[in-house]
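Q: A reviewer asked whether we had any structural model of the full assembly, not just the individual parts. We don't, so I'm hoping you can provide one. Inputs are below.
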Amino acid sequence: MAITSRGATPAQILHAPRAAALVLPTRRRDELSPDELAEASEAFRLFDTAGTGSIDYLEFKSCLRALGFAPTREELASIVREFDREGTGRVTREAFVEVCSRMYSDRPADERLAQAFALFDETGSGTITRRDLKRVFREIGEPIDDEECAAMIDEFDANKDGLIDPADFRAVLSEAMMSGF
Ligand SMILES: [Ca+2]
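A: Here is a predicted structure for the entire assembly that you could use as a starting point for your response.
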């Protein structure tokens, strides 16, 4: 059934991504949480043995690995090109923190998706039902009626089983990101 036949407006459809974005654990891109900053600083300190405030390329690579990142040779080369403009072959603490911010903000995408999904899927059924959707909207203080709810599900329900599965949810969130929420 076409969404328009239910009278849902594009704005109403956009409600779904917005709700998803609201329950998504927030994180501003390129910003480290205090824990992450502490972790990154500690790693840097360990490798900056001489305490010069900068580390060389190999230390930089080890440092990132110590934090659980496994950048490819190409990624490393491109990072070094970007940050080591003067060609010193060293990465400063500030540059290192910035690199970490990017890596951390890329890393938990799937984790955040799962966390947000779980907030909708209260029963852990693996899918989001109309009831789940309505509950979340109620919780965020923007209750929706059955018609709006059905329209939202219809918009993202790729296999048309009336439920939002994790793949559908990913699409909802991409929409949320694209609309700037
Ligand atoms: Ca589905």
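A: Points you may want to mention in the reply: Confidence is low (pLDDT under 50) at residues 1-8. The pocket of calcium ion is lined by residues 157-159, 161, 163-165, 168 (CB under 6 Å).
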